[in-house]
Design a protein that fits this description.
Number of strands: 12
CATH architecture of the largest domain: Alpha-Beta Complex
Strand content: 15-25%
Number of domains: 2
Radius of gyration: 19 Å
Oligomer: single chain
Distance between the termini: 41 Å
CATH superfamily of the largest domain: Spore Coat Polysaccharide Biosynthesis Protein SpsA, Chain A
Number of helices: 9
Amino acid sequence: MPEISIIILTLNSTRFIRGCLESIFTQGYHDFEVIVVDNGSKDGTVDFIKENYSSVILIENKNNLGACKARNQAIEIAKGEWIFTLDCDTILEKDFLQKMMNFIKKSEEFVGMFQPKILKLDKKTVSSCGIYLSILRRFHDIGKEKPDNGKFNTSKNIFGVCSAAAFYKRQMLEEIREDSGYFDERFFFLVEDVDLSWRAQRRGWKAKYYPEAICYHFGNSASYEKKFRQYLCFRNRYLLLLKNENIFSLIMRLPFLITYDIPRLFYLFLFNKYTFKTLSEVIRLEARTKILC
């Protein structure tokens, strides 16, 4: 059995997938399998993979089922002890996998998520050093858009990991799996990694950041329109809170949440065509989702 199952999602990704796969197969560490899930590409991505990377396990979806569903499809057939989710527009630095696995094996048993340092393609700007959840229940990529000037060179415990490049322990994923999947498929994409991290934290699992393993990320390679991303971010934020927030904590934070969310909702009403869709879906989600006591 491979030690790592590397899971990559593609959607019209011919300009990115070669660099991503080359950075994987030229690693010094080879105890892995690669599973690519294609979400209905029309640009020849699938043919390119078949012709050039015959060892890749390929799942072909006719339509875009979303990042959550696609990752779950791959996890279902993955054989590795560790699941490594990787965006197709990401390139691993040399010896990335060996460094990451050395660190993982030295870490505590209850750490179920590991985050490498993710830089932008300029190799100077931070994309993510993990996920931070604020008092307003806003989620941020730690260090995003800041220069990589040494401030983010210390390993530490973090709230959660960014699924653009994240290691998940298989044992943990099986323990926290829900009816809606390892990654909650209701999210489609965006915020699903925050939800998974929060669910894992509630079950006693921890996340750790390791800056010596570095990769480079382009970002938003699927090119979703801005308004659609705003809709998903706003809707998924409420699903996240309804699923994971303690009711007493939610009441205490309510003044802060109102201060943050009312202006956002007003903006969406004025400028985003998905506003009514967002509200109707939040209401339906609230009716079906139990807030923790």
